[in-house]
Amino acid sequence: MTTAVNPDRVSREYDPLHDPIYQAVRTLIGFCQGIFKALPTSRYRWSPALEETQITITGKYPLKAATINQRPAVVVGHAQSQILNTTMGSFESQRFVTGNNVHRDLIQTTMVFNCIATTGVEASSLAFFIASNLKALRPLLQRLGPFTQIGQDVSIGVESPPGALLQATADTTAIAIPVMAAIYIPHRWEVLNPAYAVDEILVTADTIKE
Within a 13 Å sphere around the CA of 46, how many CA atoms are in the beta-carbon half? Predict the structure, then answer.
């Protein structure tokens, strides 16, 4: 039995400007939108239509007080990332035709889902829903996303004090509870062998007559 490989995924990996961490963030924003879209209409159902959605799911900061007053929010981001150097020099192979060295390694980072609402109970409910779905749907995420590992280590952080995100007023209070999930992403890069650049040098010579 063979597993089909998404050609778009392969082409992205070989793109020298491809950012796998950004791709991971976008994948998990879509994941959150999907699980909240599956909820019944009366409970935080996400919709791409701004006038219909009952929750804001984004990767953008900052949030406005008016947004939190209208609906809770989930802001997806990531913490510090590290290339792990899992093998000596991260060396994988050398291309026979070009002489380029191909390297492959793992990037480790922690994805952070900041669940923001006007009450701690509401933020906690959103955080637990996301954390439980990260565990339950881990095989789906590993198959569709850029992940070598995700959903093994998931934790729910402590509730932020009132005023930590937005200055608390009589009309607005923003409480945040983060969900943290450690992820590992494959990363590949290729280094040009300068010795093979000689084949691309063009030399022209003019005869000088005295």
Answer: 19
